[in-house]
Amino acid sequence: MDLEMNLNAPHSMGTTIIGVTYNGGVVLGADSRTSTGMYVANRASDKITQLTDNVYVCRSGSAADSQIVSDYVRYFLHQHTIQLGQSATSKVAANLIRLLSYNNKNMLETGLIVGGWDKYEGGKIYAIPLGGTLIEQPFAIGGSGSSYLYGFFDQAWKEGMTKDEAEQLVVKAVSLAIARDGASGGVVRTVIINSEGVTRNFYPGDKLQLWHEELEPQNSLLDLLNSSSPEPMNI
Amino acid sequence: MNFMASKQPENSLLGPESDSQRTLYPYVTGTSVVALKYKDGILMAADMGGSYGSTLRYKSVERMKPIGKHSLLGASGEISDFQEILRYLDELILYDNMWDDGNSLGPKEVHNYLTRVMYNRRNKFNPLWNSLVLGGVKNGQKYLGTVSMIGVNFEDNHVATGFGNHLARPILRQEWHENLSFENGVRLLEKCMRVLLYRDRSAVNKLQIAKITEDGVTISQPYSLKTYWEFSAFENPAQGAIGSW
To answer: What GO CC annotations are associated with the protein (chain B) (predicted)?
Structure first.
């Protein structure tokens, strides 16, 4: 057993992050696990970070890199908003992320999904993977957990979903990724952004649907033994 | 004490990398671009795939874009670098228009500009990780050229990048001729793209064909090609063989 845990390993966000558009806005979703090597440094992190009142970003990859990039972009957007005299658009936010990611591509290790709502274009999702490519998509997935979701989204995604359909899809997807990706875990957080504003939701692990080979959580074996079901000790 | 895991291997001869801006390796890449001269201008084809290593991650990436009034640029390689090149060209065309002197940059000039950019970046060991195809028509003159990430550039009647060099160019060498009609040009490109779809792992079955003539640029809607699998030899290749093949 590996007792020598590398606590100095870079804090990485093995992560699952998702951004989905629906008719009226966007839904962003993420898990909450931050790991240093094999140790879970934070089991309840918030990977969906605010940039402006109407634009948020999902962070994956290196925790430090994604935090500093978000901080810079938040700072630039704040100044931009003052100068512009109105809210920044999600496209501007995404491009600022792209500039930092592209121009520092050799030093950064972070993949980001920008989602927001503005009065000109409505709800938009922009993916900025490693390297600094900017790509606008109806939905985007990222982080190590996303590998398990390509097939799921190919099948489950539909154009023109309602807000609730979109959020259910995101929660289901993050939950499926958590089930299979060791680097993703904890709770599912979602942020819904539309013309009315921003709503944050929180889905603790025990409130999620059970998948294959997962069992209903119990307080103790003793509860099972004391219940009426026959022969609980038999394998 | 090892605080930050740098990406440099210990036995590297490269200097410190935190202060240099060099593209070490591509992340999101596009595969082949194929183009040919035909009767009225240039035809160019590229699929819409953006691969992330071996994953076919993005399937709606436009890898061909019009440049000014007379040119069409197609790119393979790192998509972020292609997006940056489009920004450089945007500025170039803008300044050209601002002269407002009735002249406009033709495909030959744009190709030359790109060659200089690519070669100079290569000399600084910080290449734009792309292979570019530049086609256009100006004053009745057709032009088709290519530039690679190390600055190798030339013009020809038909060009291709990446796998296209190995799979498409032999077909073009056999079947291309002067004054192809639009229909025959498109059929020839589709023949090349189908072979690439069969044999290039990073090909995606969603492509666009672009046309540039004296009248301007048209980029087709995205579409998919039919593929043929009904060879009798495909049905049961291991029949009669001892073992699996």
So the answer is: cytoplasm; nucleus; proteasome core complex, beta-subunit complex
- Alpha-carbon gap: B83 to the closest alpha carbon of chain A (Å): 7
Task: State in Å, rounded, how far the first CA of chain B is from the last one.
Answer: 55
B137: enclosing H helix or E strand: strand B130-138
Q: Rounded to whole angstroms, how far apart are CA atoms A72 and A75?
A: 5
CB A153 within 8 Å of CB A24: no
Residue B71, beta-bridge partner list: B67, B136
DSSP-assigned states of every residue in B41-90: EEEEEEE--EEETTEEEES----EEEETTTEEEEEEEEHHHHHHHHHHHH
Portion of chain B with pLDDT greater than 70, in percent: 90
**Interchain pair B4, A10: CB under 8 A:** yes
Closest to A115 in 3D by CA, of A21, A45, A17: A21
Domain boundaries, chain B: 31-224
In chain A, what's the furthest Cα-to-Cα distance? 72
pLDDT digits (tens, 9 = 90+) for A62-84: 999 999 999 999 999 999 999 99
Q: Give the gap in angstroms from C-alpha A150 to the nearest C-alpha of chain B.
A: 8
CA nearest B81 in A: which residue?
A133
Supply the ipTM of this predicted assembly. Answer: 0.76
Report the alpha-carbon distance of residue A131 to residue B28 in Å, rounded.
7
CATH architecture, range B31-224: 4-Layer Sandwich (3.60)
Q: Is A106 in contact with B79 (Cβ distance < 8 A)? A: no
Q: How far is CA B158 from CA B62, B143, B215, B225, in A?
A: 21, 10, 21, 21
* CATH level 3 topology of A17-227: Glutamine Phosphoribosylpyrophosphate, subunit 1, domain 1 (3.60.20)
User: What is the reported pTM?
Assistant: 0.84
Contact at 8 Å (CB) between A10 and A61? no
Q: Collapsing DSSP states into helix, strand and coil, what is residue A3?
A: coil
